[in-house]
Amino acid sequence: PILIADPTQARPWAELFAENSPGRVTSEIPIFVWQGAADHLVPANATAEYVRRACALGDSVTYAVYAGADHGSVLARARTDVDEWIAARFAGTPVVPGCTTVQHLLI
pTM of the predicted model, to two decimals? Predict the structure, then answer.
């Protein structure tokens, strides 16, 4: 074995993992999260859990899920949405407070 103990259960690692996991403190800035529904490297349920935690903290989160997209193809599918979202922030357009989820179907 590489490790002699499960680091998510051993002190101080369990606490350090918890402290450094996203969605544990409020963000001062709006967040855009994009996820490929077919991503096997970053599972959709892990991303959804992060979004749930961030929303529960009161963060402004835009969460876009792209059907059929995996880890390698999601950016190509999300690019226009990402570019428009970032351009709107630089233009001073405020986000709608709270959480928004957008499901993108296969085209």
Answer: 0.79
